[in-house]
Each structure stands twice: as structure tokens, then as C-alpha cells.
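Lab notebook, bench 4. Still working through the backlog of constructs that have no structural model yet. Next entry is a single chain of 130 residues. Request: give me the C-alpha cells for it.
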Amino acid sequence: MTSPSLAIQAALVAQIRALNTAADARVYSVIPQNAAYPYVMVWPGVETPIDEECFDRTETAQQIDVWADSTSYIKTKEVAAAIRAAFHEKPMTIDGHTVDRVRVETINYSDTPPTYRARINLTIDTQPVA
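Model written out:
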């Protein structure tokens, strides 16, 4: 069985870029130096195997951060809301795996000037394509 982590991360980056939010195409797995605000960071994720007798599944906990500065801080909430609407309990396609469920578990907002953040935690259950 192959890990779904890279395929999930790539799909999230592509799908968030397509949402037409204030972050626009500034959705990264590695933040470039001097990135303009607001932007989105999609972290690599944490996998937990779910071993069952008839098939192997994986639960991936995925963190997505929306960053803004004092001139665009309200965008953290707007972009986070768009991400929630796009992914919570919605179908998702990733290479080599079937996605059983996508859930937005939490959105944590932190305001620590000069930067502001929305930290979104997703759980994505997958199984390999037969």
C-alpha cells in the first residue's frame, strides 16, 4: 500500500488555489521568502493506519494555515470559511486512493499582531484503489 500523504497534500494545494479566495494562487507547501499576504500553507500531514480485516485504510490529519497581516487580517476568516465550505463532508479525489470521508475538525483563529492566523484541521479517511 502506498501512502496517501503526498497525493492529499497536492490535491489540497490545487483545490484551494482554485477556490478564488483572497489568497488567490498563494497556496504553498513551502512558503517562499517574502510571500505576500494573505497566503495559505498546507502542511505534510500525519497518517494513522486503520487496519481492518478486509482492507487497509488510512486516517490523515492535515493542517492548513491561513496567514494574513494587519492590513488583511479579516481575510483569515474569509479564506478559512471558503476552505471549510469546499471540503467539510464533501467528495474529494486523490491519485491512487479512494477518499471515504473529509471532515473539518477545528478552525482555530489567533491574532498576534503583526500576523494573524486561521489554523484548520482536517481529517481525511482513505483506502487504496483496488
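Notes after review: The CA atoms of residues 99 and 126 lie 4 Å apart. The domain at 5-128 is CATH 3.30.2000.30 (STM4215-like). Flag for follow-up if needed.
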